[in-house]
Amino acid sequence: MTAALLRAQSTRFAGLDPLLPAAVEPPPGDLLTAALPDGERVSAVLTRTLIEPGTPQSLWSASEVFELHPLLGAADGGALDPLLRALPGRLTAAGTDTACVVTWPSRDAAAARALMTHGFIPLSVLAVRTTPPPPSDPVPGVVVRRATRADLDVLVESALAEVAYSAQVGGAIPRSDARAVKRAALRAHLTQGDPIWLAERDGVAVGHAEGWHTESRPGSWAETRVRHGRWGYVNCLSVLPHARHAGVGRALMDVAHADLSPRTVGSFLYYNPPNPLSPAFWARQGYRPLWTVWEVRPAAALR
Ligand SMILES: CC(C)(COP(=O)(O)OP(=O)(O)OC[C@H]1O[C@@H](n2cnc3c(N)ncnc32)[C@H](O)[C@@H]1OP(=O)(O)O)[C@@H](O)C(=O)NCCC(=O)NCCS
């Protein structure tokens, strides 16, 4: 059944959004099946992942994550409903630091109704850059350069400002070890040569961006999200609160995109739809939603 559903799902995804990759086999987990009113059968695999404390992921994810990987074949996202109905009985989550997650094509509008009915919210979006804006004018007084290990202290402050803001309007979790986690992650990225761009205004640090390249190839994580090829990935963009809305973010991304784009098929990133700043910012930078990550936190709030 799985192979036929995968083929049909790939065909449907391609018709829904030409930038979606072919559907790939779900990871191992618990199998759920359901019958649709017309007799068609759909299925899903439920996985459970524990996020290690002290990892970068722990700053944007609940510690215990149940993820549903639906296989709807040719059916539209409304067919999620019978699978979501079966879900509460299959979750063993207890406590508040838990989540249930479904990642589904943003353009499948019928899925949104089914997910919202069961308590899911569209907490983040994976967006791809389809329409780069024309080059913008330089921002007076702002210089963007590649950061070095000597900049670690200001990078940590900038990264923590992003966590603090995104914890209000998105999925970030300001855990007690956030400073140490960010410091270790930034140091590791600098050491392995991933680009980090630092913005200075009149010589004072006011924000930063992080990114790297990722290859979508058979068996890779990226293959589940974007078509095969080499992609630029923007991991973090932050401008300190007092410096926002003055062109610093735009100046950072002008340089970041110029550095990331050679020999790539495109670039992608995640942002939080409830964030009042970033969706408008990223749309102006030429990004549009490809996948929506629907989430219930805690998992027991699923209905
Ligand atoms: C999102 C963020 C990085 C954008 O950086 P920024 O320096 O504030 O952005 P910019 O000043 O370059 O402005 C971006 C756009 O907003 C517009 N803008 C400018 N002033 C504005 C204002 N007062 N209100 C709303 N929009 C404004 C600009 O017109 C600009 O559009 P343009 O590029 O087409 O001219 C920054 O606001 C931030 O750090 N927010 C908190 C953390 C966060 O949300 N990070 C992103 C996570 S994905």
TrEMBL record:
Residue ranges constituting the N-acetyltransferase domain according to the UniProt record: 142-303
Protein name per UniProt: GNAT family N-acetyltransferase
InterPro entries in the cross-refs: Acyl_CoA_acyltransferase, GNAT_dom
A Pfam family hit: Acetyltransf_1
Native organism: Actinokineospora xionganensis
Xref: PROSITE patterns: GNAT
Entry-linked Gene3D superfamilies: 3.40.630.30
Domain of life: Bacteria
